[in-house]
Write a sequence for this structure.
């Protein structure tokens, strides 16, 4: 996930694009020439086509929220199906993996009754769930891994979160961020993972605490958690703000 | 068993012409943005050149793909309903036996297969009905890899996520193959392009192709 974004090329073509749209060419078929103009539309410009694409992303969020079932589970696999070696993935290369800050603790903020920070031993004392599920990357590849930790719904209830709030946001000490809709956050397979392959998380797998959510694409399973916030204000995320579909449900 | 056709019926009725061009635009957007998504993690030892892809980067490609998807889905459903209810499938696209396919294919490669606007020979019937099935499979596998949990039954039907992804790619290859043949034939018979744009009258039927199937 380290592809650089292309230089903005379509901005100065916006007037021509608007004119072409007025002629209704989008519904009348595309010539190769007009396709060459459209390939500049990559969600980073202020053209009408990019605005339409962003609107479709929001439409797809609503469709996916409607399709989502609170009880339907992601397929689970036997231990023999686990992918080895497991592929490292982040928005930076593996040699830039951050070590856990000394005196790490998990901050809790927003619409919760108890904002006291959480240390690892407190998290380890909560009920734990294990899962062997498929991690599907937005790039298309997938791999099967084993995680265990505290179900997020258990944690949210423990801190007295407002479960009718719209979003749960995650901030990470490696500069990453993401967010979930509340329904997905409360799904039984959404966990705050402490272990990977039955051992405490190593730094490259998100030490000391990561999100693992098999009902969404891989980039939603944020590593190296620092803070959790329950909120009604759309929090976005590192990739979401650049154009990855926010809901990104599986 | 259908009634005799008047000679001034259009080669392609208006709904077919409209749905053809909406569908064609959507399929081309799906293919080009699909290449952008494929390039993010190629499952075969090749990648598509950047200038051939749509979206500029992965998020742009996905935004295009999941937007054009709804256009193709709606257009496809409308076309399937129209084709089934109007008799278009039964009359025009229902594949004929292998003998007539071989006969027309032999005539085609010797450039002796005459083309009559509004009438479908055995090769056309096979190609058009085939590409409709392939596009349906590509939409179904696409939904399967988009929603492997919520539509897990569909993903399972195609052998699970990685296999469904492979089938999705293979269907793209078949559609591109169809498009190459389709565009070559349109280039050889440019009148067919006009007939898909304007209400050109159908040619009179040739007795041996109209009743001999």
């Amino acid at each position: 996930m380290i592809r650089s974004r292309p230089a903005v090329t379509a901005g100065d073509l916006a007037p021509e694009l608007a004119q072409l749209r007025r002629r209704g060419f989008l519904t009348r078929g595309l010539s190769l020439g007009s396709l060459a103009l459209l390939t500049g539309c990559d969600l980073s410009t202020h053209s009408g086509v990019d605005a339409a694409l962003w609107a479709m992303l929001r439409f797809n969020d609503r469709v996916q929220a409607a399709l989502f079932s609170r009880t339907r589970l992601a397929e689970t696999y036997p231990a023999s199906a686990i992918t080895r070696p497991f592929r490292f993935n982040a928005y930076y290369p593996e040699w830039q993996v951050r070590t856990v800050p000394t005196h790490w603790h998990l901050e809790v903020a927003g619409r919760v009754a108890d904002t006291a920070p959480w240390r690892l031993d407190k998290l380890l004392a909560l009920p734990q769930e294990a899962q062997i599920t498929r991690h599907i990357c937005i790039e298309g590849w997938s791999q099967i891994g084993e995680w265990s930790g505290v179900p997020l719904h258990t944690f949210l209830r423990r801190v007295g979160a407002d479960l009718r709030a719209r979003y749960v946001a995650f901030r990470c000490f490696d500069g990453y961020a993401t967010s979930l809709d509340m329904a997905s956050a409360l799904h039984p397979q959404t966990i705050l993972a402490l272990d990977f392959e039955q051992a405490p998380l190593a730094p490259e797998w998100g030490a000391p605490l990561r999100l693992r959510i098999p009902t969404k694409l891989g980039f939603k399973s944020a590593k190296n958690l620092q803070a959790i916030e329950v909120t009604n204000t759309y929090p976005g995320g590192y990739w979401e703000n650049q154009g990855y579909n926010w809901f990104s449900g599986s | 068993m259908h009634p005799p056709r008047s000679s001034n019926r259009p080669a392609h009725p208006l709904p077919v012409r409209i749905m053809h061009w909406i569908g064609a635009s959507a399929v081309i957007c799906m293919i080009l943005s699909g290449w952008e998504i494929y390039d993010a993690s190629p499952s075969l030892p090749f990648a598509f050149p950047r200038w051939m892809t749509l979206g500029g980067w992965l998020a742009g490609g996905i935004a295009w793909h999941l937007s054009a998807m709804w256009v193709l889905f709606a257009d496809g459903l409308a076309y399937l309903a129209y084709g089934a209810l109007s008799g278009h499938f039964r009359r025009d696209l229902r594949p004929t036996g292998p003998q007539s396919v071989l006969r027309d294919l032999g005539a085609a490669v010797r450039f002796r297969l005459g083309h009559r606007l509004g009438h479908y020979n055995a090769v056309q019937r096979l190609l058009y009905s085939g590409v409709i099935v392939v596009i349906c499979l590509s939409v179904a596998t696409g939904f399967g890899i988009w929603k492997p949990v919520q539509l897990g039954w569909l993903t399972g039907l195609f052998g699970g996520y990685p296999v469904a992804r492979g089938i999705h790619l293979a269907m793209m290859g078949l559609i591109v193959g169809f498009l190459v043949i389709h565009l070559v034939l349109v280039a050889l018979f440019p009148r067919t392009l006009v007939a898909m744009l304007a209400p050109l009258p159908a040619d009179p039927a040739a007795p041996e192709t109209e009743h001999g199937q």
Observations:
- The two ends of chain B are 12 Å apart (CA to CA).
- DSSP finds nine helices and no strands in chain B.
